[in-house]
Amino acid sequence: MKKIVVGIFTVxxxxxxLWDEETQTKHLTxxxxxxxxxxxxxxxxxxxxxxxxYGGAVLIPxxxxxxxxxxxxxxxxxxxxxxEEISARLFNRDSTGYYRLSNPADTVYIWSGDSIFRKNxxxxxxxxxxxxxxxxxxxxxxxxxxxxxxxxxxxxxxxxKERVYKYTTESDxxxxxxxxxxPDDLKFNFLDRELE
Length: 196
Hints:
four-stranded antiparallel beta sheet; 4 helices; 196 residues; Lipoprotein; alpha+beta; 2 domains
């Protein structure tokens, strides 16, 4: 009996290792890495002094799909995670105990059997889950552009809030390149053409 219990416990422990999500890290330069777990759509840009470890301070959240860099600048393209944004709006419980719909159009994403009702002039639902389409993460209809000034990154005073510039249009990004003195020969390398 003891051998059976030990055998079942061992199989359980070994099988739980199979469910761990694999993490990957790609070192760019200095203390800056791309990291993701499970699949490339989770790729984010981190500041981490250990170039071999996943994680650190997130400078650009998922999904980073193109980067370019030198010793002073990192440029990146990213598709946002609209699934996270919609989830935050859908599952915003208020004092009534129900989920208030700040955007009633979001109801297209909730389960068809969910109860939707109006109370005190606001729309609510009782969550029975949701099934978001894959097109929301990454949301390829939107591209954000980033410039990160890493020229002072080795100093203790380096502050990402002052050094990470986000642009929501390509024309603003091009203007930002000029204003920050990003060299013309610094180009994007696409990490995954499927995410482009």
